[in-house]
Amino acid sequence: MQPEPFNNELTELTHRRNGTLDEFHRSFEEAVSSVEAELGGSYPLWIDGQEHETEEYFEVASPGNRERTVGRFADAGTDAVDRAVEAAESAFGDWRRTHWSDRVETFRQAAGLLRERKFEFAAVLSFENGKTRSEAMADVDEAIDFLRFYSRELERAEGYEFDTGEPTPGQHCRNALEPFGVFAVIGPFNFPLAIFTGMVAGAAITGNAVVAKPASATPLVAHKVVEVLSAAGVPDGVVNLVTGGGSAVGRPLVEHDSVDGVAFTGSRDVGRSIEKRFVELDKRGPVIAELGGKNSVIVTANADLEKAVSGVRNGAFGYAGQKCSATSRVYVHRDVIEPFTERLTAATEELAVRDPRDRAAFVSPLIDDDALERYRRVCEAAREEGKIETGGAVVSGAELEDGRFAEPTVATGIPHDHELAREEHFVPFVTIHPVSDLDEAIAKANDSEYGLCAGLFSEDDAEIDTWFERIESGMCYVNREQSATTGALVGAQPFGGWKSSGTTSKFAGGYWYLPQFLREQSRTVVGEAGRR
Questions:
Q1: Per the confidence metrics, is the pTM higher than 0.90?
Q2: In 185-258, where does DSSP find H-type helix?
Q3: Annotated catalytic residue within 9, 290, 389, 463
Q4: CB neighbours of 491 closer than 8 A, spacing ≥ 6?
Q5: What is the pLDDT of residue 530?
Q6: Catalytic-residue membership of 173
Q7: Parallel, antiparallel or unpaired: strands 287-290 and 261-265
Q8: 3-state secondary structure labels for all residues of 452-477
Q9: Helix 11-18 crosses helix 21-38 at what angle (to 10 degrees)?
């Protein structure tokens, strides 16, 4: 049966349509003032429903202003990880036996609580990971959507419990999907609310217990997520939070004997190492991982260049390119590459690089010093191998000197097989490449280890059909001027990739996501006892 369409949160768009955009901005700015007054606090771990202090704490500063302390966070080690996993293991038995309808109600309650605090959460994101108000609110909306969508899907599937009949007289058969046990959830910095919430919800709503580790750059919003889940009625021990670095916290969590599965979003190398370690340790549970992309866009001779320029610019430079879905390489027909490049260069130079709290800001700061140094290296290599059409420099100036701001950069003349056009950089950088026809463009777009997102700009139906048939990508967009490759919506546009962009080819916010956190069991009872 075809599911009913899912209604996404879409806060800013709703205000825009209702003519209340000033109210949206006012609410955000009020939340910024309130959140700013609370920054700098200390946050212990959260284990079995209680705060857990550690000897060491680490400090997180805002990427938009390194002089502004977001907070001090407990630095977990192996002992704390052990304690968190033990709490999850103890809570698992009662939680798995909690009826699926009660779990659904709990997570719907969480969605409602998050909706009530959406501007507060958006403001936290703006401070903690440098998102503009539009990007931050979209992150909050997606988290709410995950909670609501997964609740709907578990309810629609009736908890994945089915009566499969009586194949022979007296044999009464049922089929069920059962939780694995304890899941490690390891979140990214770039969507520290949406992706973190989605992975935690996917594991927990299906009856698993969770030990969650957010990115070390963005632990504050994770604390607030766990606060919401606890207030919604998630029992103590079902969701535990440990903070700290990958080596000290992430590795012992993944390798723990009692951890049955992992949900991870991050780099390909780390994700593959988790998979490999699971095999080495003979763990039989799943590694559900989204592992980045090197996302292509094709602009044919039949494209509307205005749409193409808008889509590529927004896809490449939203959140300063720090998205696995960011547009990073563009293959343009030789007949239109000159006007396209000129227009994209001009449009890119119009983008505002400002403090993310500024209403006009578009390009966000980079998350840490490593990202800023990576940006410098990428731009230096682009100058040596080709030409930088615009950008290529770290942004300075009195108002931005304490942040990590970089110019959005368009490069040409880079060989298709060069590292700049093949590796994921996570900075505001896009390359443009000439092609002779659609066949060449598709071949080069597919010539990648990644297969996350892809875009096409063409007004020709035959070209569109050919592209859909041949492109090797999990998420495919045609003529999407709001963003060529980014901005997927839960339900309508499930998020995930092919090839090295993921481990399962089942996408977050989609209809086959939740069963990944479950294992199948066939149940047969012979005789009258099976008739209940």
A1: yes
A2: 194-205, 219-232, 251-255
A3: 290
A4: 5, 6, 8, 145, 149, 509, 510
A5: 58
A6: no
A7: parallel
A8: CEEEEECCCHHHHHHHHHHCCCCEEE
A9: 140
Strands 209-213 and 182-186: parallel
Residue 396 pLDDT grade (very low, low, confident, very high; cuts 50, 70, 90): confident
Cα 198 off chain centre by: 9
pLDDT tens digits, residue range 105-119?
999 999 999 999 999
For residues 174 and 162, is the Cβ–Cβ distance under 8 A? yes
Handedness of CA 247, 250, 254, 257 (dihedral sign): positive
Supply 397's token pair.
């100036």
Contact (Cβ atoms closer than 8 angstroms) between residue 452 and residue 497: yes
Residues facing 477 on adjacent strands? 455
Q: Count each helix (H run) and each strand (E run) in the chain, helices first.
A: 15, 22
- Rounded Cα gap, residues 347 and 213, in angstroms: 39
User: What span, in angstroms and rounded, lies between the C-alpha atoms of 92 and 96?
Assistant: 6
pLDDT in tens, 237-247: 999 999 999 88
Catalytic annotation present for 476:
no
Tens-digit pLDDT profile for residues 179-224:
999 999 999 999 999 999 999 999 999 999 999 999 999 999 999 9
**Of the residues 9, 128, 153, 324, which is catalytic?**
324
Q: CA-to-CA distance for 163 and 165, rounded, in angstroms?
A: 6
- Name every residue whose Cβ is closer than 8 Å to that of residue 262 and which is 6 or more positions away in sequence: 183, 184, 185, 186, 254, 274, 278, 285, 286, 287, 288, 289
